[in-house]
Amino acid sequence: MPLSSPRRSALVDQVITQLRNQITSGEWPVGARIPTEPELVELLGVARNTVREAVRALAHNGLLDIRQGSGTYVLATSELAGVMHRRFAGADPRHIAELRSTLESSAARLAAERRTERDLDQLDALLARREEAWRSGDAELFVAADVGLHMAVVTASHNEVLVGLYADLGDLVADWLRADVGPELTPQMHLDHARLIEAIRRGDADTAAAEAAGYPFACRGGGGPQVSPARG
């Protein structure tokens, strides 16, 4: 005998799907506070208990973080990302950097071999956005722009499994980078990515892989030596 009627269960599932779509589409980005329970009730036209069940289900799956007295925040962009975030949140930062280095080096090599003109246009645009974010001095804006550029490099590999895995690790990588950069951008942390993009453009797989492999250790949290702003 079911614990709840099929009708109610189906309604909760529909609300879960709508909320999940808001997250996966980027409408509610990671770190954002979602609408309050009364607001969701009004927006969705369903009962408060239905909204509450849906939010709790997404929190259980790792997409949302319910903070008493503060609200509910987006924690991850997919269930797998949520699991990885919880599983590796306390991992050694150097190990996160090493994983990023391994994945991005392989992706950059493939990108140099498989990139399309559309990929190159996207990489150029995101590289310019990253440099603009750096010049703004806004650390959070720079982290978002840097993560976006690296995601585009991985996407240009045209390996669906690699792209999916990296996307699910994206929130963890962003947290690592945010801690590594700190609240203030300093000149010694700057690392020009133009050589990586140019290597991909030329189809130079070895250089692209080498460039990508070196990036995660450029800042203080990566455990490697600092580099000068002139590199690249």
Features:
232 residues, mainly alpha, two-stranded antiparallel ribbon, 10 helices, 65% helix, 3% strand, disordered N terminus, disordered C terminus
Structural commentary:
The chain is mainly alpha-helical and 232 residues long. It has helices at 6-24, 37-44, 48-60, 79-88, 93-114, 117-136, 139-155, 160-181, 194-202, 205-214, and strands at residues 64-67, 71-74. The protein has a two-stranded antiparallel sheet with strand order 1-2. β1 and β2 form a beta hairpin. The longest helix is centred in the middle third of the chain and has 22 residues, at 93-114. The N and C termini lie far apart (66 Å). Residues 1-6 and 217-232 have low confidence and may be disordered. It holds the Pfam family FCD. InterPro entries: GntR_C (IPR011711), TF_FadR/GntR_C (IPR008920), Tscrpt_reg_HTH_GntR (IPR000524), WH-like_DNA-bd_sf (IPR036388), WH_DNA-bd_sf (IPR036390). Keywords: DNA-binding, Transcription, Transcription regulation. This is GntR family transcriptional regulator.
Largest sheet: 2 strands, antiparallel
How big is the Rg? 20 Å
Average pLDDT for all residues? 83
Q: What fraction of the residues are assigned to beta strands by DSSP?
A: under 5%
Helix fraction? 55-70%
Strand arrangement in the largest pleated sheet: 1-2
| Shape, per Cα inertia axes | elongated
Give me the count of strands: 2
Terminal CA distance: 66 Å
Count of runs of 4 or more consecutive helical residues: 10
Could you list the spans in which at least 5 consecutive residues all have pLDDT below 50? Answer: 1-6, 217-232
Kindly name the structural category. mainly alpha
- Helix-strand sequence: HHHEEHHHHHHH
Organism: Streptomyces cirratus
Keywords: DNA-binding, Transcription, Transcription regulation
Protein name: GntR family transcriptional regulator
InterPro entries: GntR_C, TF_FadR/GntR_C, Tscrpt_reg_HTH_GntR, WH-like_DNA-bd_sf, WH_DNA-bd_sf
